[in-house]
Specification:
single chain, 272 residues, alpha/beta, 35% helix
């Protein structure tokens, strides 16, 4: 099989995560709480749980019996060893997101559940626009700065490509506000989410670019009190390992009642 292109400098990513502050991991805490709420609505108990996360300390408080593992290219998961796998807010750094999903499915027993929480394409759209415009103005080009994050339709398709049954995808945008764009950039560093792209510039960004980006950001997005918003879109993907007990789609043409009868309307045949 062809090797996927290298997106992430894993060494740099691990260094950034090692410098992350516990008080800046609110996105992971939000994802954890959302996963807990969703599982509370599932009418079954899960006994063999694995959580893929770079910050196991965030998840252990809610899932003390779960096994936490790193989001390595090859996940430390044995085949058919789990009835629940949670992929916790780290898929955007994966070189092969489909491969990550396939490994999660193989680790599930039949009718096991996979819950993926990942950052979506609307994440940091304000910062991306401001940095792009500033860099274009001052350097005449663009450099890779923010990890590519999929739109909900594309991410939902990952579940189908990985072979999950009953796939569902939904989006939950979250908006945080900061005193200035530079405060946001410092917060991203504290989250362990600094630029770790393999194709990034290997020299510090020019101060003039950062200051111009902050100016553009504030001009375009600042609220009346002068603070600037930052969007974080958390997309949740839900899929089940296939099992014969699950609901199956009906064969086309097998309906026992016409839709027009149910709606109380008349049916008008279309010409071929």
């Amino acid at each position: 099989m062809p090797t996927p292109p290298r997106l992430t400098d894993r060494h740099a990513l691990n260094l950034h995560r090692a410098r992350a502050r516990a008080d800046a991991l609110f996105l992971h805490e939000t994802a954890r709480d959302d996963a807990q709420d969703r599982l509370g609505m599932v009418n079954r108990a899960f006994t063999d749980v694995a959580i893929v996360t770079p910050f196991p300390q965030v998840w252990r408080s809610a899932f003390p019996e779960a096994r936490c593992l790193a989001d390595d290219e090859v996940l430390d998961l044995e085949e058919a060893s789990c009835d629940l796998v949670i992929h916790g807010l780290c898929l955007h750094w994966a070189d092969d997101p489909v491969g990550q999903m396939i490994q999660c499915r193989r680790a599930l027993r039949p009718d096991g559940l996979c819950l993926v929480l990942t950052l979506g394409g609307q994440t940091l759209h304000q910062l991306r626009a401001a940095l792009g415009q500033a860099e274009t103005e001052l350097t005449g080009g663009l450099s890779p700065r923010v990890a590519p994050m999929g739109e909900i339709r594309d991410l939902g398709a990952l579940l189908q490509r990985a072979g999950f049954a009953l796939p569902v995808a939904d989006s939950d945008p979250l908006t945080a506000s900061y005193a200035t764009p530079l405060h946001l950039m410092r917060e991203l560093r504290a989250m362990g989410e600094s630029n770790a792209l393999a194709a990034r510039l290997r020299r510090p960004t020019r101060r003039a670019v950062l200051l111009r980006a902050a100016e553009i950001y504030a001009q375009a997005f600042a609220s009346e009190d002068g603070r600037v918003p930052a969007t974080f879109e958390i997309i949740t993907l839900t899929g089940w390992a296939p099992d014969a007990s699950q609901p199956q789609p009906l064969r086309p043409g097998s309906a026992a009642q016409r839709l027009s009868d149910a709606l109380g309307t008349s049916e008008t045949p279309l010409n071929d």
